[in-house]
Amino acid sequence: MTELLSNYVAGRWQAGRGAGTPLFDPVLGTELARVDATGLDLAEAFGFARDAGGAALRSLTYRQRAGLLAAIVKVLQANRDSYYEIATANSGTVKNDSAVDIDGAIFTIGQYAKWGDALGDVRALRDGEAVKLGREPVFQSQHLQVPTRGVALFINAFNFPSWGLWEKAAPALLSGVPVIVKPATATAWLTQRMVRDVVEAGVLPAGALSVVCGSSAGLMDQLQSFDVVSFTGSADTGAVIRSHPAVAQRSVRVNIEADSLNSALLLPDAAAGSDAFNLLVREVVREMTVKTGQKCTAIRRILVPAALYDAAAEAIGAKLAGITVGNPRNESVRMGSLVSRAQLNAVREGLDALKTQAGVLHDGSARALVDADPAVAACIGPVLLGARDADAAERVHDIEVFGPVATLLPYRDLDHAIALAHRGQGSLVTSLYGADDAALGQAAVQLAASHGRVHVITPDVAQTHTGHGNVMPMSLHGGPGRAGGGAELGGLRALDFYHRRSAVQASPAVLAQLGLPQA
Question: The pTM is what?
Answer without folding.
Answer: 0.95
